[in-house]
Design goal:
alpha+beta; binds zinc ion; two-stranded antiparallel sheet; four-stranded antiparallel sheet; 53% helix; Muramoyl-pentapeptide Carboxypeptidase, domain 2
Length: 199
């Protein structure tokens, strides 16, 4: 039995089963920005054939899954062309778009944490989001992810900041305190804001 199980695991151990992936609608937002900046071909040239082809021919649907390593390459190419500030603005908009439509009117940072895991699962097929919140500060950890590269973590920081701002923390700032690329066990982001009493 042990042998059979080992074989099963080996059969499943291909790139598709083990590489974390990100949801197509996020990839589409990034693709449009990259196309606008003239960086589509440069990004595709760095990807495996299937991802490159899907990207160039615009065959990624909103509900599809796309390798996060390829997503990170796209981010690097976009950052090189339009600068970090423009990528951060896009990240904040993209992250806000995964929240329910009436979220800004009804929510608070404390309630945000309750929906954070579900929102995370909507756009990531692996790993886990762990959020600890106190008055005016939060720690957000991406657990169970491999190395992603600097551009991916800068995108995450901007996305987290954007979501907290939508949830009522208008002056929220976010920075990465510990990165798996720097030897940490996971990537951890620290968020700070001025509490406004909303619950
Ligand atoms: Zn990181």
């Amino acid at each position: 039995m042990g042998t059979g199980r080992a074989n099963l695991v080996r059969v499943g151990m291909d790139r598709e089963s083990f590489e974390p992936r990100v949801r197509g609608h996020l990839v589409r937002v990034l693709r449009a920005a990259l196309a606008g900046a003239g960086g589509l071909e440069a990004a595709a040239a760095r990807l495996q054939q299937r991802e490159a082809s899907n990207l160039l021919t615009d065959r990624i649907a909103d509900g599809d899954w796309f390798p996060i390593s390829a997503f990170a390459v796209m981010l690097e190419e976009l950052e090189a062309r339009v600068g970090i500030a423009a990528v951060e603005a896009m990240a904040a908009t993209a992250a806000s778009s995964i929240l329910p439509k009436d979220y800004a009117a009804t929510s608070s940072v404390e309630r945000l944490v309750a929906t954070a895991t579900a929102a995370y699962r909507e756009v990531n097929d692996r790993g886990k989001l762990v959020v600890d919140v106190e008055e005016g500060r939060a720690a957000v950890r991406f657990v169970g992810f491999p190395s992603g590269g600097g551009a991916l973590c800068r995108f995450r920081a901007a996305a987290i900041r954007g979501v907290f701002r939508v949830a009522g923390a208008q002056d929220a700032s976010c920075s990465e305190a510990s990165c798996i690329d720097g030897g940490g066990a996971f990537c951890e982001f620290r968020v700070r804001w001025t509490p406004n009493g909303r619950r």
